[in-house]
Amino acid sequence: MQKILIVEDDEKLRHELEIFLSRNGYQTCGLEHFEQTLEDMLREDTNLILLDINLPNVDGEYILKEFRKISDIPVIMITSRDSEMDELLSMYYGADHYVTKPFNTQILLAKIRGF
Known about the structure:
Blueprint: E1 3-7, H1 11-23, E2 27-30, H2 37-43, E3 48-51, E4 54-55, E5 58-59, H3 60-68, E6 75-79, H4 84-93, E7 97-100, H5 105-113
Parallel strand pairs: 1-2, 1-3, 3-6, 6-7
Antiparallel strand pairs: 4-5
């Protein structure tokens, strides 16, 4: 069973994603604290990461850039930022996909199944 790490500070959305993904056959884990986000991401044994850009204490694009120096685990950015520049930066830093909120959960699921 694939494990997905959800790095999302919106507790309601994180919980909804955990339920949705578990109902579709995935094991999930959601970060609840963001003081050591990069270290926590590296500590988890996961197959895929859903990463928000707007996190407390740190920028998700910076986290992605640093994460890519150490790991090649697939990352899908999930964000309310919908500018082409943010998408371009995320892709440049190593994101595998970029999904803007609000998003269709079935489309997100299709992107996840691509891994």
